[in-house]
Amino acid sequence: MVLDKKEVFEKLYGPNWEVQNWHPMIRNIRTGVKSSKAHHCGECAARRQRSCYEALHYVYCSAMVVADNGNVVRCGEVLCFRSKGCLHHPFSAGYNELFRELRLFGLVAEELVDMVTTPDSDLGARQKEQRRTENAEIQREMDRQAEELAEAGAGEGPQSFANIFDRFKNRNKQDEANRRAARRTEANLTRMATREAEAQRHRWTKKDTKISKFNKSKKRMEEQRKAEERAAQREARAKTEAGLLMNDGTLSIVRRP
Ligand SMILES: [Zn+2]
Ligand SMILES: [Zn+2]
Ligand SMILES: [Zn+2]
């Protein structure tokens, strides 16, 4: 349901994150490529070390990218948390948002991590297919416009084509924004559910305490009532004995067995 820092790192960073493989100069956690010089951490004002990554002063980019060979892999480049993000995957475009949540709450919805860990080998093929479909659409639209222009006899061909391209570009941007919004909503819902469960547990604990307090005071009252009853019986007996003495003056030292 939710993962802590250690679990997220294990899932996202892979074998190069393991203590025996990791090195402070690793620049890309997927390839293990190191930089040539040691780096500084602005937040620690000291040499960058593993604790900087554990505290999310630095993270490795979790964006999935299509490599040249068509495989889907993780970007893995190191990035400073207090920056605009990965060079190719800026925070402003919604990338690596789970690290913000992880740093803020120490936990993150597993779904959010899975979204960037599930190897999607079809992604490359799907993107190619999508581009092909779009190109065909653009081609059809261009043909149609060219026909129109030919019928009209003249016109601003290149300008119209530029507009068509812009339209497609904007539509794709919108799609990406919607997907990001959906991801955020899902993560927020999970977080809310977790908090609600936590609150519910808290309420139950409080209720249990109340019930046990009530039972204790009930028992105490019961004991007190019995004690009072016993006292009343003692008093009644004493009165009866006194009565005996009064009714029979000669037996002044007689006590009832
Ligand atoms: Zn640091
Ligand atoms: Zn990246
Ligand atoms: Zn920095």
UniProtKB/TrEMBL annotation:
Residues 169-186, 193-211, 220-240 have a biased composition (Basic and acidic residues). It comes from the Eukaryota. Residues 169-243 are annotated as: Disordered. This is Uncharacterized protein. It comes from Westerdykella ornata. The lineage of its organism: Eukaryota, Fungi, Dikarya, Ascomycota, Pezizomycotina.
